[in-house]
Amino acid sequence: MRRQLMVTLASNAFLQLNGKELELLQRFHERTVFTISPAKTIASYSDEIVKLACVHPFLMHAAMIVTLLHDRHLATVSDTKLSTTESFHYYRSIALFNSKLTGPLQGSERDALWVAAAILGSVSFCHIEAQTPEEAWPLKPSSALDFNWLSLSEGKLQVWNITNVLETQFRQLALEHMNFSKTIPAGPGLEALPSGLIGLCGIDAASTADNNPYYAVALSVAQALNLTSDYNTNMKFFQFTMMMGLPYKHLLVRKDPCALLLLAYWYAKVCQHKHWWIVSRAALECQAICMFLERYHRHDSNILELLRFPKTSLACLASGDISPNQSLAVTNSTNQLPRQFLFVNTSSIP
User: Least buried of 54, 262, 276, 300, by fewest C-beta within 10 Å?
Assistant: First the structure.
């Protein structure tokens, strides 16, 4: 979309965009929109998303905040608190988004809500104010806001049902996400995980997602571990959040060691691909989980042994020596990594 078309769209928007806001919208269209979803079909929808943003305030504010956060990441800004402008667009988008969900939907509102849900899910995962592992969950004092990112991820599924996305103009994009699990190779099952972790989770041949709260999450992590492409791993990211059943989420809130280990393995895997809105939280909370388990479960040798993979992945991330082919094989290299390897400065990650 040419700048002239951007100007035309902006002139018909619900608000008049100033020069900086127009440039921000242009960066969203030319750059950031392609990072919201790894789906290959996203490129064909970029123009339509901008057009919708110029009609629906909640989507425009969502586009603004995700682009501002992308700018912040590319500029390696160390301050993790939202600026006044970022806060305005973020909370305004959420407020308007929630108000739309309570009433009847008309015209293109269904399309705009679905896109806004995806963007706000990315923003909620990206935004983490912690700068050190000690300030990150699960080491920091518990808060009702700890799993906001997961609530918004769940909200995306509800929006799918409300908007009936398969009947919107984004049908092909939605289908790509829905069919992803059918298109990747079946690959390894639970055997890809260390036997100690499978045993710790109480998973055996009779286990199912219905009788074991760890099963579905463990299977999703196992299938992700040997994926090598950015596309497959990032698509798996979206699938993983959908595999977290309510019993598993309750275990996370209670800081159950098995639930924490599975999340640490998942974080360690997605860190390898360094996707901009995923890596900061994944790296910091993975570090915090490792430190939490070492601190409060230091007498459990099995748990300490199982920390090899996430700790080694973090060490490689900190040194820049990491590739998408990193796998559980690296855990044989060392028994106890130097403690300083756990502190990854995520602001320097490209």
Answer: 300
pLDDT at 72: 94
Please state, in angstroms and rounded to a whole number, the distance separating the CA atoms of residues 298 and 122: 34
Residue 83 has pLDDT above 50, yes or no: yes
Report which secondary-structure segment, H or E, holds 146: none
In angstroms, the CA 341 to CA 119 distance is 32
- Three-class SS of residue 125? helix
DSSP state of 127: -
> pLDDT, tens digit, for every residue of 188-197?
589 999 999 9
**How far, in whole angstroms, is CA 155 from its chain's centroid?**
14
C-alpha span between 272 and 258 (Å, rounded): 22
Residue type, 80: T
Q: Give the Cβ contact number of residue 75 at 10 Å.
A: 9
pLDDT value at position 300?
96
pTM of the model: 0.86
Three-class secondary structure of residue 78 per DSSP? coil
Per-residue model confidence (pLDDT) at position 153: 66
pLDDT at position 31: 93
DSSP symbols for 191-243 = GGS-HHHHHHTT--TT--TTT-TTHHHHHHHHHHHT--SHHHHHHHHHHHHHT
**In the chain, which ranges are continuous DSSP H helix?**
3-11, 19-27, 33-36, 46-53, 57-74, 84-101, 109-126, 148-163, 171-183, 195-200, 215-225, 230-242, 246-253, 257-271, 276-296, 301-306, 308-319
Q: Shortest CA distance to 73 belongs to which of 84, 65, 61? A: 65
Question: CB of 322 within 8 A of CB of 313?
Answer: yes
Give me the mean pLDDT over the 213-240 stretch: 78
| Dist CA 285 CA 135 (whole Å) | 9
Q: DSSP secondary structure string, 7-39?
A: HHHHHTSSS---HHHHHHHHHIIIIIHHHH---
Q: How far apart are the first and last CA of the chain?
A: 27
Q: Residue 297 is inside which H or E element, if any?
A: none
